[in-house]
Amino acid sequence: MARTSRARQLASIGAEITESVRTPGTDIDRVMETAEQKITRLAERAEPEQGVTLLEGMERLLPELERRCNVPDGITGTPTGFEELDAMTSGLQAGDLVLIAARPSMGKTALLISLLLNSLMKKSGSKGQLYSMEQPTEQILMRMLASLGSIDLTHLKSGLMDDEDWARATDASALLMGDLNDSLIIDDTGSLTPAMLRIRARRNARRYGHPSIIGLDYLQLMRCPDQENRTQEIAEISRSLKALAKEMMCPVVALSQLNRQLESRADKRPNNGDLRDSGALEQDADVIVFIYRDEVYHENTEDKGIAEIIISKQRQGPTGRSACSMKVVLPVFLTSRADRGGAHEQRP
C-alpha cells in the first residue's frame, strides 16, 4: 500500500511538471526547483528513522571515544581558531546547531567568516558551505580579502589602495585561489526555504565533498510560506536547520537577529530571551553565542575594539564570556584575549 501511494504521488508530481512546462512563459528553473523540493519531501517521508540497539550504539560510540582520546589538543570538533571558544566547546561539534546572534553592527558576519576561514585553514582537506542571503558573493569575497590580508575594507570598496594594500590583497587572493580554492562553496541565493537549503547542501556535498561546517547568513531571511504566521515560520526554519546539522553530521552555524527591545535596558548584553521571532530558536540550538561591543553604545568606553563573545547556552559544556580584539574597520576578529567573565558556569 505504501509503495502504491508513493507511486501515485510521484505520478502526480510528474503530471504537474508536464503541465507546467507546456505553459508559455513558464520559468523552467523555478519548475525544476519546485519539482526537486516535492520529490525530496516525498523521499523523506518514505524513509522512516530507524532505531539502534544498545549494542549497535556502543559499537559506534567506542571507536569515536578512542578517536577523541587521541586528539592531542582536545579540539574534537571543527576548530574555530579562537582559543577560549575552542576550549569551552572542544570545537564546534558534528550535528550541532550553533546560533550566533547580535544586534546590527556587532560583527555577526565578520565572526562567521572568520570561523569558516579558520576552520578550513586549520583542518587540511576540510570543506565548507556558506549560504549568504544578505550579501552577494562579491561582498563576501571582499570581506575575506580584508580578513586574510588585514586590509581596510573601505579601501577595497573604494578602490583607493596603496602599494601595501595591493601586496596584501595579492597574497590573500593567492591563498583563496590556491590552498583554499574549492574548499568553500558560497551560495548567495536570497530567501531560501528549508527544502531549498537542504537540496543545495546535499548537492554541494555530492559535487565538492562532505562539509565539515555550514554557515548561514542569516536565518530570518529564510522563508517558509506554508506556515500561518512568523512565529511558526521561524520555528519550522529552526527545526529544519537542526535536522540539517544532524543529517550532514557537521555543525550548522546560523546568524540570527535580536529583538530591539534590549536597546531600552541599561545593560545591553543579550540573553536568550532576546532571540527574535520565536522561542524555538532557544530550544533547538545546541550552542547560542552572543556578540556584544560596548563601543557601539558608549563612545568613550575603555573597551574600544573589543567584542565580547558570550556563550549563553551549550548542551554539553560550560557557558561563559571571553573577549576578542576586533578591528572595527577591518571585518576580522583577532586572537581572543584572556577570559573576562570569571569562572565558567557549568550547565547541569
From TrEMBL:
GO molecular function: ATP binding; DNA helicase activity; hydrolase activity
A biological-process GO annotation: DNA replication
Pfam families for this protein: DnaB_C
Domain SF4 helicase: start-end pairs: 71-347
Record-listed E.C. numbers: 3.6.4.12
UniProt keyword terms in alphabetical order: ATP-binding, Helicase, Hydrolase, Nucleotide-binding
Major enzyme class: hydrolase
PANTHER family per the UniProt record, alphabetical: REPLICATIVE DNA HELICASE, REPLICATIVE DNA HELICASE DNAB
Name of protein: Putative DNA helicase
Gene giving rise to this polypeptide: dnaB_6
